[in-house]
Amino acid sequence: MHDFQRQGARLFLVTFCLALCGAASAQVNIFTGETMKQMRLEPGWYNSVSLDSTYLAGNTELLTLRARCRSDYLARTYHGFVFGSLQLGRKSGTFFTNKGMIHGRIIRGLTRHISLEAFVQKQFNTSILLSDRNLAGGGARFAVMPSNPRLHLYLGIGAMWEHERLNAANAGEMNTRIVRATNYINWNGQLAERITTSATGYYQVHAKRIADYRLLFEGNVTFRLTTRLAFPLRLNFRYDGEPPTGIEKYDVEIFNGLRYTF
User: What CATH number did the domain enclosing 172 receive?
Assistant: First the structure.
């Protein structure tokens, strides 16, 4: 009976992630230190939920809400996970941020140094006129420092198919379907008993035009408060070499909040 209840709880969490972020936005840099930590654990299910918010009143009325959820399944030879994020922001009664994403990935270890991975993603981000983006791709990951217990460094190379639908007021709806190379470097380390840090940087370039590229970065420092509760500080950076007309080339986001793992 207890096993049935646990399986039901796991199914509910995955369903909750999909429902929360099914329309969902962000960027592809999901392969962070959180993923690497999961891959060193025992086989089984691992789940986490993060929530943060900001509220201002008085001269400026501002409200932002952000939720992230994740469900991992770890087996002897592979690791699969689903990740979702949803962010809403409203200022003086008008939404200025509305973005979300859902990302699924499976990783299959071949040797101690080499793994293969495949992923799919769906996202939207109204602040950069992105109505819908769909990604599918894969590649190889190489462990550069597999024996160091406190610092782990990985390199990844691959390719992805990208379908974007932009909704620009001056140009109407635009659809693009292209192939991009996607390459990343990831590192994560243990600074102290209760402090960990990680970062992932991506370089994604059009297969036929190098001027069309994106740089993505996500870095974080996490302070573990208890066995299950942690306080993460996170920085996101996005640079687009060829953004839609009227959209800035870069975005910077800084977050802090609480993460509960179970």
Answer: 2.40.160.40
Range of the domain at 47: 2-261
Please enumerate in sequence order all residues whose Cβ is within 8 A of that of 205, keeping only pairs 6 or more positions apart, or say none.
180, 181, 212, 213, 214
Q: Which pLDDT does position 23 carry in this prediction? A: 35
Distance between CA 98 and CA 216 in Å, rounded?
Answer: 19
Contact 224, 230 (CB under 8 A): yes
CA distances from 104 to 94, 118, 169, 173, 234 (A): 32, 9, 32, 27, 21
User: pLDDT digit string (tens) for 18-49?
Assistant: 333 333 333 444 555 555 565 567 788 888 88
CA-CA-CA-CA torsion sign (78, 102, 130, 32)? negative
Chain Cα centroid distance, residue 8: 25
Question: Which residue carries 């939720």 as its tokens?
Answer: 67
